[in-house]
Specification:
Blueprint (H helix, E strand, L loop, with lengths): L8 E5 L1 H4 L18 H5 L2 H7 L3 E4 L3 E3 L7 E7 L6 H13 L3 E6 L9 H8 L11 E3 L3 E2 L1 E2 L2 E5 L6 H15 L5 E4 L7 H14 L4 E4 L19 H6 L4 H6 L7 E2 L2 H12 L6 H8 L20 H4 L4 H12 L6 E4 L36 H13 L1
Parallel strand pairs: 1-2, 1-13, 2-5, 5-10, 10-11, 11-12
Antiparallel strand pairs: 3-4, 6-7, 8-9
Helix pairs in contact: 6-7, 13-14
C-alpha cells in the first residue's frame, strides 16, 4: 500500500506573503506584510485548478516575527494571521475540496519574548528555568544556531516535553493531516517518538516530516543538536544523506535536501541530470521512508535563480522534479509565476532570504501555471 503522501503534490505556503497582504506591504523588509489564513482559504479553487492535493502552511502561532518561526505563544494563532476560527475554516475547506493540509511546527526553540523565557531570565527559582539550557544564568544559554533571540527549549525536561506534545496534539485534533517539523536536528529522539505515538493514535495516516538540514552548520553549534552520533557524523563530513538517514525508524520521513543538493549542483555545473545517479541515491533509503522532493523553499534561492533565469532550463528542471514517481513533490508558492531574484540566498548574508519571500503578484498572469498543471496531471496518471 502506498501512503497517501507519496502521491502528494504539496503546495508550500508562506502565509505572510501569499494572499490578503496589505497594498502598501514592503516585502523587501523583515516585517509583516499582512498575508493571512483567510487569504489562503480564498484561494482553494486556485489550488484545485492547479491540481495540487496538499497544502503546507508556515507557522501561524503567536509570534514576534513575520515568518512565524519566533514563537511567543504555542497555543494561540497570531492575530496578524487571523483567528483560530480562520484556521479551522481553512482545514475544513481543504477537506471539503479533497485537499490535505500540513502544519509547520517549531518545537526546538521559542522567541526570547516568550513569557517562559522572560520569567526564566528574571527568576532563577522559576520552573521555567529548567525549560531552557542555561550554561550560566541568566544570559548564557543554548540557542538555535547562535541566534540569541531564539533560546533552545529543553525537551529533555519531562514537563517541557509533555507541555509541547499536548500543545501539538491540540492543533492536530483540529484536523491537520501532518506536521513538518522545523530543525528536527535539535529535537530529542524520545520527544519525536512520543509525538509520533500520540498523532498515530489520533490518526494512523498522520505524517511527521522532519527538516534535517545541515546547511550553515558549524562545529560550535553541535552541542545544540540532539542528533544521535552527531560528532561521528560531523567527523565523516556532516553529509546531508547521513543526517537524513538518522531519522529512519523515528519519523515517517524528511524533506529531501540531499536530492535537492544534487539537482542544484547539476545546474551549477551545467551538466545533464542523471537518472541512474538518482536511482543509486534512492537505494540508500528504505522504500517506506518518505522523502518529499523540492527544488526550493523559503530558506533557499528560487529555482528560477538557480536556472540562471533561463526559462527552458527552468522547464526542464520542473520535468525532472515531476519525474520522481512515488515521491511527494513540493512546490514553493510562486513557482508557477517563475519568481526569481538577483542575488543568491545564503545563510552568511543577512536577510538575503527576503528575496525568496516576495509577495505573490496576483494581478499578473502565472506564466507557468498551465505547464505545471499538466505535469501534475501526468504525474497523477503514472
Amino acid at each position: 500500500m502506498i501512503h497517501w503522501i507519496n502521491k502528494a503534490t504539496i503546495y508550500h505556503i508562506f502565509i505572510d506573503r501569499f494572499a490578503g497582504y496589505r497594498v502598501d506591504a514592503q516585502p523587501e523588509k523583515p516585517e509583516f506584510c499582512g498575508g493571512n489564513l483567510k487569504g489562503v482559504t480564498d484561494k482553494i479553487s486556485y489550488f484545485k485548478d492547479l491540481g495540487v492535493n496538499t497544502l503546507w502552511i508556515s507557522p501561524f502561532y503567536k509570534t514576534s516575527a513575520y515568518h512565524g518561526y519566533h514563537i511567543t505563544d504555542f497555543d494561540q494563532v497570531d492575530s496578524r494571521f487571523g483567528s483560530k476560527n480562520n484556521l479551522i475554516q481553512l482545514i475544513e475547506k481543504c477537506h471539503e475540496n479533497g485537499l490535505r493540509i500540513i502544519a509547520d511546527i517549531v518545537p526546538n526553540h521559542c522567541s526570547d519574548q516568550h513569557r517562559w523565557f522572560i520569567e526564566a531570565q528574571q527568576n532563577k527559582q522559576s520552573k521555567y528555568h529548567n525549560w531552557f539550557y542555561f550554561r550560566s544564568w541568566p544570559d548564557d544559554y543554548l540557542q538555535f544556531l547562535g541566534f540569541s533571540v531564539l533560546p533552545k527549549l529543553n525537551l529533555e525536561n519531562s514537563e517541557t516535553s509533555a507541555y509541547m506534545v499536548n500543545s501539538l496534539m491540540d492543533w492536530a485534533k483540529l484536523g491537520f493531516d501532518g506536521f513538518r517539523i522545523d530543525h528536527v536536528l535539535g529535537i530529542p529522539e524520545a520527544f519525536l517518538k512520543q509525538l509520533s505515538k500520540e498523532v498515530k493514535n489520533l490518526n494512523p495516516e498522520f505524517v511527521l516530516i522532519g527538516e534535517a538540514w545541515g546547511d550553515g552548520m558549524k562545529y560550535k553549534y553541535l552541542p545544540t543538536l540532539r542528533l544521535k552520533g552527531r560528532y561521528k557524523i560531523w567527523k565523516n563530513g556532516f553529509k546531508q544523506t547521513d543526517l537524513q538517514k538518522a531519522y529512519v525508524g523515528i519519523l515517517d520521513g524528511v524533506l529531501d535536501f540531499g536530492w535537492r543538493d544534487m539537482l542544484i549542483e547539476s545546474l551549477k555545473q551545467n551538466k545533464p541530470f542523471s537518472k541512474l545517479h538518482f536511482k543509486h541515491y534512492n537505494k540508500q533509503y528504505p522504500s517506506d521512508f518518505i522523502l518529499p522532493r523540492f527544488p526550493d523553499n523559503h530558506d533557499t534561492s528560487r529555482i528560477m535563480y538557480d536556472c540562471r533565469q533561463d526559462a527552458e532550463l527552468f522547464r526542464q528542471t520542473l520535468k525532472i522534479l515531476f519525474a520522481q514517481n512515488n515521491f511527494p513533490i513540493v512546490l514553493y508558492h510562486g513557482t508557477e509565476y517563475g519568481l526569481t531574484h538577483n542575488h543568491e540566498v545564503s545563510p552568511d548574508t543577512g536577510f538575503s532570504d527576503l528575496q525568496a519571500r516576495a509577495l505573490i503578484p496576483w494581478d499578473t498572469t502565472p506564466v507557468y501555471f498551465q505547464e505545471i498543471k499538466q505535469l501534475i496531471l501526468k504525474k497523477d496518471i503514472v
